[in-house]
Amino acid sequence: MDASAETFVIIPTYNEADNLDDLVTQVLALPVSIGVVVVDDNSPDGTGAMADALAVTYPGRVYVVHRPGKLGLGTAYLAGFKKAMDDLGARRIMTMDADFSHNPRYIPAMIEMSRFEHVVIGSRYVPGGGTKNWGWNRVLLSATANFVARTLLGLQAHDVTAGFRLYRREVLASIPLNRIFSSGYSFLVEMLFLCQRRGWQIGEVPIIFEDRRDGTTKISSKEIVKAQYTVFRLFVRRIRGGEPKQPQVPLAP
Ligand SMILES: Nc1nc2c(ncn2[C@@H]2O[C@H](COP(=O)(O)OP(=O)(O)OP(=O)(O)O)[C@@H](O)[C@H]2O)c(=O)[nH]1
Ligand SMILES: [Mg+2]
To answer: Which residues fall within 8 angstroms of residue 165, CB to CB, at 6 or more apart?
Structure first.
């Protein structure tokens, strides 16, 4: 059965009970055709039950994928993509964090830009974008990660680690999602690499990224090491030539 919403936002959650209710309410109040897929990894704080309650309150607009434990951000996105594409017939698939770092108010502009671009990034690093309330260590980590990934992988977008994104359906359909090797945060860099290599047009909408409103971070030093390994692996693929670019698919309304 096709759901009526044209855009589905995948929200991966792990212990986001302080944020989820408000966030979903704000997303659904936007003046666009939009629904939500929460992918919860059996959060000990009860986020999964909260998501189920939202699905009852908003039938046909909120869906929940439950996974048995914390399996990583990348595979959570994949589970959400599958739900939105196969079960819900979404035309646009978005991803955003649950912690209000990605303010829902930017979503309409991202959807508008997707008429002209295949992938849209909610970007901190284009004019008008930025970060708020970040300590120097987060600024440094993010700037370094972006610089290294962009340089080694030849990525043209300015914010390549952003989790606030929109993919048109045909983009996700063109990518062998089952062959993506990153399971955690570096999934984002790998996805962008694959999108660019396939010749999809990538646009950026400036956003102000705010530090998480509530709850605690899930980034660990292990994730950072895994991300370095991902960039290295993709760099090797890039210099070897890797997969050919597919012919560019024209933009359809
Ligand atoms: N389902 C699922 N969600 C996750 C996992 N790891 C992180 N998340 C969610 O992914 C989003 C991004 O995680 P954050 O911890 O906010 O990462 P960040 O924004 O880079 O760091 P902070 O905002 O400083 O905490 C949040 O909505 C998390 O709840 C995971 O293993 N599984
Ligand atoms: Mg966050």
So the answer is: 94, 95, 119, 120, 121, 122, 188
